[in-house]
Design goal:
OB fold (Dihydrolipoamide Acetyltransferase, E2P), five-stranded mixed β-barrel, 4 domains, 13 strands
């Protein structure tokens, strides 16, 4: 009878482990992390998987790793280096990981967190360094793409809330490899423009939403440091409400959307008109109180002098009263001039923001019939559309015969 070697289970698992470790050795594996758990010992147990297969994996706490355990989550796609082996007590085929490196979105998030910790430790996010925004800016700079939806949103909100403010665009790419450099150059142009040509009260850095790859330009360290050093109060509005960038943390104010940035930058003219009216009413009430107090004082002193004092004493009090009334009138006159100047100033601002004002200078305003929004582009109309043309002394109703855009 032929002699056959019979393995015990332990011998078989040991043989399989040695064969795998010697034949395969250290390898790199790409896969998605799943079923992640951390033992009390600090060891990480998880599964690496792709579309068709999966393998159990472990990373021991004592192993050297390029990534802190907290930076790995289920769903992260990683590149792992390790040794293929068999866990002998259970005969389990597993992968012992030495190095973990997230790829794709995981790598972007890791770089973001590292830079965030670095700049936070240096004090670039400190509330003490934030500059308050001016209450009523007269000139605003905007850094964004000249073709993006963010620019249209900002223009629309500013025109509605504070139409007399002057806007200056400093165009730049907002995504792609060249975006960080272009954004820094646009920021530098805005600062030099404010210092040499026209002072800017606020600077808005913005773009619309996008993926983590699209927004990565606003996580550039050099751009963040330039923004921190900017002498103009800044608002950062990058992406949507759930998106956060390094620029959002460095800027003086962070807005969740481009439209919200415009609302932060300027007051609402309707609310401002209400404040002016309230100030005027309060001034009138205060003036009445002052006049009544002075008159009551005069009557009281005059009666006292006439009843108890000789003629000379009456004349002395009369002179004092004249001096008091003169001083009071002079003070009230100065106060009235100051309040009247303020009221005239805001009235002029509100008058200039009246959209019908240009009609008295020979201009016209054209809207689609039944609409109130002015037509700004031929692309808003087509042949046959009814339109209304508003003049200073009346209204013209007509239809579009043909739409002829200008050549570029």
């Amino acid at each position: 009878m032929e002699h056959r070697h019979v393995f015990t289970v332990s011998e078989l698992n040991s043989t399989a482990r040695i064969a795998l470790e010697q034949e395969v050795g250290k390898v790199w594996v790409q896969g998605e992390v799943a079923d992640l758990s951390q033992a009390p010992s600090g060891h990480l147990y998880f599964t690496l998987k792709d579309e068709n297969s999966q393998i159990s994996a472990v990373r021991f706490k004592s192993r050297t790793s390029l990534l802190a355990p907290i930076s790995i989550e289920s769903g992260t796609v990683v590149l792992a280096q390790g040794t293929l082996t068999v866990y002998e007590p259970r005969g389990r085929y597993q992968f012992i990981v030495s190095i973990l490196q997230p790829i794709g979105a995981g790598a972007i998030q890791l770089a973001f967190e590292r830079l965030k910790r670095k700049l936070h430790d240096e004090g670039l996010f400190s509330p003490e360094t934030k500059v308050p925004l001016p209450e009523m800016p007269s000139a605003i700079g905007i850094i964004t793409s000249s073709k993006g939806a963010a620019l249209r949103d900002v223009y629309s909100v500013l025109e509605r809330r504070w139409p007399h403010v002057r806007l200056f665009l400093f165009p730049s790419a907002v995504q792609g490899e060249a975006a960080p450099t272009e954004l820094r150059e646009a920021l530098d142009r805005a600062i030099r423009f404010s210092q040499t040509t026209h002072p800017l009260d606020v600077l808005i850095l913005t773009r619309g939403g996008g993926s983590a790859d699209d927004l990565i330009a606003f996580n550039d360290e050099s751009l963040a440091r330039d923004l921190f050093a900017c002498p103009i109060p800044t608002i950062s509005a990058v992406g949507h409400e759930i998106d956060f960038s390094i620029c959002d943390l460095v800027a003086d104010q962070r807005a969740p959307t481009p439209s919200a940035a415009a609302e932060l930058a300027v007051p609402d003219r309707v609310e401002t008109l209400g404040i002016v009216a309230s100030i005027c009413h309060r001034f009138v009430r205060q003036t009445r109180v002052i006049w009544k107090g002075r008159f009551d004082e005069f009557r009281l002193r005059a009666n006292a002098c006439m009843l108890r004092s000789p003629q000379r004493r009456f004349e002395t009090y009369e002179q004092r009263l004249d001096l008091s009334l003169t001083a009071a009138l002079r003070n009230m006159s100065a106060l009235w001039r100051d309040r009247q100047s303020a009221a005239d100033h805001w009235s002029e601002i509100l008058r200039l923001s009246d959209p019908s004002l240009p009609l008295h200078r020979g201009y016209s305003l054209t809207v689609r019939q039944g609409d109130t929004r002015p037509i700004q582009s031929v692309s808003d109309l087509k042949a046959g559309d009814p339109i209304e043309t508003h003049l200073s002394d009346g209204l013209l109703l007509s239809h579009i015969e043909e739409v002829v855009p200008h050549e570029s």
